[in-house]
């Protein structure tokens, strides 16, 4: 079995930081939005889709917006980012093949995993939405990761924290476990129920439980 992990909100507790940075950058363009609103609207989505959505609402977004955002994210992650609680213990226990499939660009994935000490457990098996035509909730990224790892979709188990990610994995014909232990998930009532409604088999909020959950029939 191949384990496919999302990165932000699953392996690293980054969504609170990233949404704050994104809110600041969008607000500076004359698109007033809070960090919480960014999390509610954009979590799990490809940044190109976010930019297109904002442009569709009549806001002029410069062509270098995403590149500037990457720099701001990297600076904030270097200062503040931590691995998800229990992730280092969990990943040391796993014996399954594993990879990362994230909506973020490769440089962001490498930065977040590098800062938190997780990169050696996953590199070089890192897959970004930038490698496929459509990001989550389309199935493209998950199918690309499975193909690159020479696994059939039915032999994959995805760990996701967003409805977009859960939906994309299910559309790819894969099993999905929903994770609701990140800081941004804990601030939302019934967060786990939304993941279940999107197609997650179960929802858990403690990463140290994952090895046992994988063993369960």
Structural key phrases:
globular, DNA polymerase, domain 1, 2 domains, six-stranded parallel β-sheet, alpha/beta, Rossmann fold, 217 residues, 6 strands
Compact description:
Helix content is 48%, strand content 12%. It has twelve helices and six strands.
What does this structure look like?
The chain has 217 residues and is an alpha/beta fold. It is built from 12 helices and 6 strands. It has 2 domains: 2-14 and 81-215, Rossmann fold (3-Layer(aba) Sandwich); 15-80, DNA polymerase, domain 1, CATH 1.10.150. The protein has helices at residues 15-28, 35-42, 47-56, 65-80, 87-93, 106-115, 119-122, 140-148, 163-171, 183-186, 191-198, 210-215; strands at residues 2-5, 97-102, 126-128, 156-160, 175-179, 203-204. Strands 3-2-1-4-5-6 form a 6-stranded parallel β-sheet, sandwiched between helices. The longest helix is centred in the middle third of the chain and has 16 residues, at 65-80.
Q: How much helical structure, as a percent, in the residues?
A: 40-55%
Total domain units: 2
CATH architecture of the largest domain: 3-Layer(aba) Sandwich
CATH class membership of the largest domain:
Alpha Beta
Low-confidence stretches: none
Number of beta strands: 6
Order of helices and strands: EHHHHHEHHEHEHEHHEH
Helix and strand content put the structural class at alpha/beta
Average pLDDT works out at: 94
Instruction: Give the strand order, joined by hyphens, for the main sheet.
Output: 3-2-1-4-5-6
The shape is: globular
Radius of gyration: 16 Å
| Percent of residues in beta strands | 5-15%
> Could you say what the CATH topology of the largest domain is called?
Rossmann fold
The rounded distance between the terminal residues' Cα atoms is: 13 Å
Number of DSSP helical runs = 12
Largest sheet: 6 strands, parallel
Assembly category: single chain
CATH superfamily of the largest domain: HAD superfamily/HAD-like
């Amino acid at each position: 079995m191949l384990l496919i992990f999302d990165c932000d909100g699953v392996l690293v507790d980054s969504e609170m930081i990233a949404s704050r940075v994104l809110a600041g950058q969008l607000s500076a363009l004359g698109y007033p939005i809070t960090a919480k609103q960014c999390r509610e609207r954009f979590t799990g989505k490809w940044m190109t889709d976010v930019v297109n959505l904002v442009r569709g609402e009549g806001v002029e977004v410069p062509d270098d917006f995403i590149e500037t955002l990457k720099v701001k994210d990297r600076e904030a992650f270097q200062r503040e980012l931590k691995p998800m609680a229990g992730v280092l213990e969990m990943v040391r226990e796993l014996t399954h093949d594993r990879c990362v499939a994230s909506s973020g660009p490769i440089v962001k994935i490498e930065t977040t995993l590098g800062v938190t000490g997780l990169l050696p457990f996953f590199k070089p098996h890192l897959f970004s939405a930038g490698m496929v035509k459509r990001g989550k909730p389309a199935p493209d990224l998950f199918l690309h990761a499975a193909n690159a790892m020479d696994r059939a979709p039915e032999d994959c188990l995805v760990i996701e924290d967003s409805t977009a990610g859960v939906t994309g994995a299910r559309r790819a014909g894969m099993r999905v476990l929903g994770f609701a232990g990140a800081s941004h998930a804990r601030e939302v009532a019934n967060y786990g129920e939304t993941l279940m409604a999107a197609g997650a088999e179960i929802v858990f909020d403690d990463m140290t439980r994952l090895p046992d959950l994988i063993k369960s029939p």
